[in-house]
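Reviewer 2 asked us to include a model.

Predict the structure of this chain.
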Amino acid sequence: MDPIRYTLSFTAPHTHYVEVRAEVPTSGRREVVLMMAVWTPGSYLIREYERHVENVAATGVDGALLSVSKTAKNRWAIETAGAATVVLTSR
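Predicted model (C-alpha cells):
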C-alpha cells in the first residue's frame, strides 16, 4: 500500500495556521476514514487536537469535490467516488 503524502504550507505565518494537504491512496475502497489522535504520547491528558482543524475538504486528483463527513470528534469519512487517490485539505 502506498503511503499518505503530506504537504504543509505556511502561507500566512503571522496567523499561526498551517495549510495541510494529504494525498491518501484509496486502494479501491468506496470510503476512507481518517482519524487524528486526541492525546500526546507520555501524557494522560486528552488534548482533543481536532478542535483546531478547520476547512476540511476533499477532492479526487482531478479536482472533483468529494463528500466529507465528521463521524466522531476526531474522525472524518470521505466517499471516494472511485478515485484512486483522495486529496484532503484542511487548516
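The CA atoms of residues 13 and 19 lie 10 Å apart. Strands lie at 5-9, 19-25, 31-35, 57-60, 65-66, 68-72, 75-79, 85-90. We have added this to the supplementary material.
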